[in-house]
Design brief:
Structural class: alpha+beta
Bound molecules: zinc ion
Radius of gyration: 19 Å
CATH architecture of the largest domain: Sandwich
Distance between the termini: 45 Å
Shape: elongated
Strand content: 35-45%
CATH topology of the largest domain: Immunoglobulin-like
Length: 193
């Protein structure tokens, strides 16, 4: 382990106290002598602290979910903004939307995040769900990431602001939209539940 740098996954596990004692000792021995891994570790610890401020609900803490979340956050080096209140949710006002309420029907949600409006449609598709989104505003392109306890989906945001995430099992998710100017995070999105 001395001859090569510590992997990203190993550093995340170290930051989250998930390593066996022997592995942790080896990792710390390398860290003590390697400034490259030290600076990566600092970045991960900083992110780890930020993650805990995402919301006051308890975060699911499976290892793969955490890693995916860290990867997405590391990619998104721009300012981040958490948007946790929908401007409109057809589930809450079915008559305004003109559809009956019900878990098996299409659902539409708007989020307002000046200068952006985000239009999400959650559409049932044989036991699973498709999330069709559009970012309206000055952005052109980016990446959409949907993360849940056992879920990681990613899609490109087109120059028209459109994206589609498919084959989503019913879950409580975090949606991250990495745009040119900032990353928008919707931390408590219920898909199919
Ligand atoms: Zn190293």
């Amino acid at each position: 382990m001395k001859s090569q740098h510590l992997s990203f996954e190993l550093l995340v596990d170290l930051a989250e106290d998930r390593l066996a004692a022997k592995d942790e000792q080896l990792a710390r021995e390398h860290l003590a002598t390697c400034s490259t891994c030290q600076s990566e570790m600092l970045r991960i610890e900083h992110l780890s602290a930020q993650m805990r401020t995402f919301g006051d609900r308890p975060q699911p803490h499976t290892s793969s979910w955490l890693r995916a979340l860290f990867r997405a956050a590391l990619r998104a080096t721009r300012p981040r903004r958490v948007i946790d209140t929908a401007l409109f949710d057809s589930r809450l006002s079915p008559s305004a939307y003109g559809l009956r309420s019900g878990a098996t029907l299409e659902r539409q949600i708007f989020f307002e995040a000046e200068p952006f409006t985000i239009d999400l449609r959650i559409i049932p598709h044989s036991e699973q769900w498709t999330l069709i989104g559009q970012v309206m505003g000055p952005a052109s392109g980016g990446a959409a990431t949907l993360l849940g306890p056992d879920l990681s989906r990613e899609a490109e945001i087109s120059s028209l602001g459109e994206f589609a995430l498919v084959a989503i099992p019913p879950s409580r998710c975090t949606l991250m939209l990495a745009l040119a100017t900032e990353t928008l995070i919707m931390p408590d999105l219920e898909v199919g539940i």
